[in-house]
Structures are given as C-alpha cells and as structure tokens.
C-alpha cells in the first residue's frame, strides 16, 4: 500500500488513497471515535453499556479526556463524524497522572512498567468498522502509531488485549501458549491484580500445539507478538465487555524500525512528523 506523508499546521497525516490516519483535532472527532467504539463493542460484540452510554450511543470514560485519539478517516464518506472508521486511544504518563492512574491499573499491577525511566504509552480501545477490517486499513493505523511512537520517543507501549469470551477453560490453549512462549521478562512483567487473577497455565508446555494456538489468537494479539511483544502473568475476566484480557507489553524499537526505515528518517529530521502539543 502506497502511503504518503503530509504535514500541516495540525500535525502529521498519513494518506493511502481515500484513507487518512491522524490524531483527532476536535471534540466532534473524539465523539465520532466514541460512537464507533460503541457500535463495535456494544452493538456488534454485545458488551454491556452504562445507561449514560446507551442513551448517547457512545463508549466513553474519564480516560478519554487525558488521551490522544488516533483516527482512520475515509474521505470518500465526507468530512463529518461518519468518516471516522478506525480509532486507537493513546495515553502517556502525563495524561495518566492527571487522572491518577493508567486504565490498565484497574486490571494489572503495572508498577514495573511505570518504573521504566523512559517514555511509556498505554494503547487501548482499538477498533475498526466492519467493512474496513482489511490488512491495508490496519497497516495504516499501525503506521500512525509508529509515527506517534517515533515523535514522542516512546520506549515501551503496553495495554490490555482481549480474547473473546469469559470462559478461561475454553481459551486454555491460547492462554497457555501465551504464558509458556511469550511471558514478559521479570523486570517489566505486569501481573493481574490478586482479586482478578486467572491462571493462564491451563495446559502443560508439552500439550501445546503451537500452530493451533496461534490460529486461535485474535489478530491484534498476533500483531503485537510479531513486533516482539510479551504478556503479563495472569488473565483477567472482563464481565462488562465479555472478554478475557491479557496484559501486553512491547518494546518499541522494532516498531519504529519496521515502519520508518523506508522513509530514511533520522532523529534530527523529526520536524517532518511534528505533532501539535495539546
């Protein structure tokens, strides 16, 4: 997919045909991202909205106010909210400090991640509208994430990724595979909070068919693993969303190298991808 980089007064923009990826610039665009999240999580995937969410048909919480919202926009659908077809929520240390914690801290002890001296970034609320769940759209979204990581010197990204369903035993193969083959190193390993901890070691190593286990993983988790990602200790059952969550942690050097080497950018050239600082 041919991708063109533009820069304007609002920051970076990556374009591929009718599709553009950039940060949300207005409250209306953030609300459009929340509406897309509602359509995917609550209408398509049958998560349980609060009464306020159901009334407004938006997925929202206090973390939205301290986050950057990465958008995929289809210009063939116009310039209004209906043009937002993909989104990712990005939270840095300063945003988490304003609200008191990262979102992941409601499920995991992330003290080791927070103790990392470099810049860290929490990723969450990832979704793409059904007709756009192609490799090209996801690749463009990931290029936007890579641009953000590169500009902000992010060294570690982390968050919670989900497997469908709340029956851990039904997920014993992918959960056991993740634990035995992709457990994060102790120095950075998140651990599920004691009251939410579900053991991932449901099968011994010798009973794991790696090919079958990988096939059972959601595409997003497989994407993180391809970038060298690891998982934390323990899964968490999320009753509201009807999912089983795992903590993901990724060192970003492979991300920036993979998505920027063809631009031949050096760190002193960073103004080419300048962001507006809100």
Walkthrough of the structure:
Helix content is 31%, strand content 26%. The chain has helices at 27-44, 51-56, 93-99, 111-114, 135-152, 172-182, 210-215, 219-226, 253-260, and strands spanning 4-8, 11-16, 19-23, 68-74, 84-92, 108-109, 119-128, 154-164, 191-192, 230-231, 236-238, 243-251. Strands 1, 2, 3, 4, 5, 7, 8, 10, 11 and 12 form a ten-stranded mixed β-sheet that branches. The chain starts with a strand and ends in an 18-residue tail after the last helix. The model is unreliable at 3-10 and 262-278 (pLDDT under 50).
**Total DSSP helices:** 9
Identify the overall geometry.
Answer: globular
Quaternary structure of the protein:
single chain
Low-confidence sequence ranges: 3-10, 262-278
The H-and-E topology, N to C, reads as EEEHHEEHEHEHEHEHHEEEH
Rg calculated over all Cα atoms: 18 Å
Percent range for β-strand residues: 25-35%
Number of strands: 12
Supply the helix-strand structural class: alpha+beta
How much is the average pLDDT?
A: 88
Largest sheet: 10 strands, mixed
Keywords: Acyltransferase, Lipid biosynthesis, Lipid metabolism, Transferase
Protein name: L-ornithine N(alpha)-acyltransferase
Family: Belongs to the acetyltransferase family. OlsB subfamily.
Organism: Inquilinus ginsengisoli
């Amino acid at each position: 997919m041919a991708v063109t980089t533009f820069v304007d007064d609002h920051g970076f923009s990556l374009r591929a045909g009718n599709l553009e990826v950039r940060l949300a610039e207005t409250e209306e665009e953030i609300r459009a991202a929340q509406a897309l999240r509602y359509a995917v999580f609550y209408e398509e995937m049958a998560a349980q909205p609060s009464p306020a969410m159901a009334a407004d048909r938006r997925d929202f919480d206090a973390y939205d106010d301290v986050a950057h919202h990465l958008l995929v926009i289809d210009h063939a659908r116009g310039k209004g909210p209906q043009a937002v077809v993909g989104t990712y929520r990005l939270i840095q240390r300063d945003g988490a400090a304003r609200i008191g914690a990262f979102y992941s801290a409601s499920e995991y002890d992330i003290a080791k991640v927070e103790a990392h001296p470099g810049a860290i970034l929490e990723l969450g609320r990832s979704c793409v509208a059904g007709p756009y769940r192609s490799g090209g759209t996801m690749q463009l979204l990931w290029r936007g994430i890579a641009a953000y990581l590169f500009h902000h010197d992010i060294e570690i990204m982390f968050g919670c990724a989900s497997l469908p369903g709340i029956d851990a035993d039904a997920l014993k193969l992918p959960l056991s595979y993740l634990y035995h083959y992709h457990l994060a190193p102790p120095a950075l390993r998140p651990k599920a909070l004691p009251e939410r901890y579900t053991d991932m070691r449901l099968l011994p190593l010798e009973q794991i068919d790696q090919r079958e286990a990988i096939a059972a993983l959601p595409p997003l988790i497989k994407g993180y693993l391809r970038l060298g990602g690891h998982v934390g200790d323990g899964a968490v059952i999320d009753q509201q969303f009807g999912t089983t969550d795992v903590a993901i942690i990724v060192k970003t050097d492979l991300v920036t190298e993979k998505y920027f080497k063809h631009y031949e950018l050096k760190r002193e050239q960073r103004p080419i991808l300048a962001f507006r600082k809100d």
